[in-house]
Design brief:
There is one protein chain. By secondary structure, the protein is an alpha+beta fold. The protein folds into two domains: 56 residues; 186 residues, no CATH class. The strands form three sheets. The protein has a five-stranded antiparallel beta sheet with strand order 1-4-5-6-7. A hairpin with a 2-residue loop joins strand 4 and strand 5. Flavin mononucleotide binds next to helix 7. The site of flavin mononucleotide (FMN) has 11 residues, from helix 7.
Length: 274
C-alpha cells in the first residue's frame, strides 16, 4: 500500500491531475495537452488527405480543360474524355517540344525555381507575374492525328489576385475556343464575373490575332458593338470591374504574345511544331 502511494506520487501526470480543478497549474496542463492532441489530429488528417487533395486538384484541372474546349457536360466521364488530349511540354523560348514527361512536370512549381524560371523585365511583364517557368504544359485535342484545339495555360494579376486559367485556340490557331479561370480571388459580382458563363461564352469564336499576327483580343469599356469593324477582337468589359478586366486583357496578351506561347504558335502554324 505504502509502495503504491509512493509510485502514484512520483508520477508527475497523476500529480497534476490530482490537483483541484481551479488550480492554475492543472488548467495550464489540460490546455497544453488539448493543444497537443488537436495538433496531432490535424497533422494526421493533413497527411492522410494529401493524396485525395492532389487527385481532386488534378480532376479539377482536367474538368477545366474539357470545359474550355466545350467537351464538359453534366454526365461527362472526366478521365475518359481527357484521354482525347495529348499533353506536351513546350520550351517557350524556342517553341519546341521538350522531352520531359508531362506527368512529372508542374510549371507553377518550376516558376519558383531559379534554375527553371525566367525573371521578366518590367516591359515584358504585361501579366504582372514577375517570373515564369521556361517550360509550359500544352494540351492538344486531336482527331485522327489532326489538331482540333490547343489549350494553353495562362495566368496573370487582376485587382486582388492572380487569375489562373486556360485559353483554347481552334485549329487555325486564331479563333478562340474559350477562356476559363479555375482559380482567383477577385470580388464576387465584380471581378468575379470572369466566371459568369454568359460573359465567358463571348470568347468563343473571337479572333485572337489580326492579319499581321499581332495579339488583338481585349476587353473594352461597355458592350461590344457588332456593327463596328474590329468587334471580332473585342470582349464586353466587366461592369464596375475595369481593373480585373485590364488584368484579363493583359494576361491573355502576354501569354499569346512573343514572350509567351508566340514562338510555339508560330512553329505550329508553319507545321514544324508537331
Ligand atoms: C470592396 C470592393 C471590391 C472591389 N472588387 C473589385 C474587383 O474584384 N475587380 C475590379 O476590377 N474592381 C473591383 N472594385 C472596384 C475597383 O476599385 C474600381 O473602382 C473598378 O475596377 C473601376 O472599374 P469601373 O471603371 O468599371 O467602375 C472593388 C471595389 C470595392 C470597394
Amino acid at each position: 500500500m505504502a509502495m503504491e502511494q509512493q509510485t502514484k506520487k512520483s508520477n508527475p501526470f497523476t500529480e497534476l491531475l490530482d490537483l483541484p480543478n481551479d488550480s492554475p497549474k492543472k488548467t495550464l496542463f489540460v490546455a497544453i495537452m488539448l493543444c497537443l492532441v488537436c495538433s496531432i489530429l490535424v497533422a494526421i488528417s493533413a497527411v492522410a488527405l494529401k493524396p485525395q487533395q492532389l487527385a481532386n486538384k488534378e480532376a479539377d484541372i482536367k474538368k477545366n480543360i474539357l470545359a474550355v474546349t466545350g467537351l464538359l457536360a453534366d454526365d461527362t466521364d472526366v478521365n475518359k474524355a481527357f484521354k482525347r488530349f495529348e499533353v506536351k511540354i513546350v520550351d517557350l523560348a524556342t517553341g519546341k517540344y521538350s522531352d520531359i514527361e508531362p506527368n512529372t512536370y508542374d510549371q507553377y512549381k518550376a516558376a519558383k525555381d531559379p534554375a527553371r524560371n525566367v525573371i521578366l523585365t518590367a516591359e515584358q511583364d504585361r501579366a504582372n507575374i514577375r517570373k515564369r517557368a521556361k517550360l509550359a504544359t500544352v494540351y492538344l485535342l486531336k482527331e485522327n492525328d489532326v489538331v482540333k484545339q490547343v489549350v494553353l495555360p495562362v495566368h496573370g494579376y487582376g485587382l486582388w489576385s492572380t487569375l489562373y486559367g486556360f485559353i483554347s485556340l481552334e485549329s487555325d490557331l486564331n479563333t478562340i475556343g474559350g477562356l476559363q479561370f479555375y482559380a482567383h480571388a477577385e470580388t464576387p459580382g465584380l471581378g468575379g464575373e470572369v466566371d459568369n458563363p454568359s460573359w465567358r461564352d463571348q470568347w468563343k469564336g473571337k479572333k485572337a490575332f489580326d492579319d499581321q499576327g499581332n495579339v488583338k483580343i481585349k476587353l473594352i469599356r461597355g458592350k461590344v458593338d457588332y456593327t463596328q469593324a474590329g468587334a471580332e477582337h473585342q470582349i464586353d468589359g466587366l461592369s464596375g470591374a475595369t481593373l480585373t478586366g485590364n488584368g484579363v486583357s493583359n494576361l491573355v496578351n502576354y501569354w499569346l504574345g512573343d514572350h509567351g506561347f508566340g514562338p510555339y504558335l508560330t512553329k505550329m502554324r508553319s507545321g514544324t511544331g508537331q
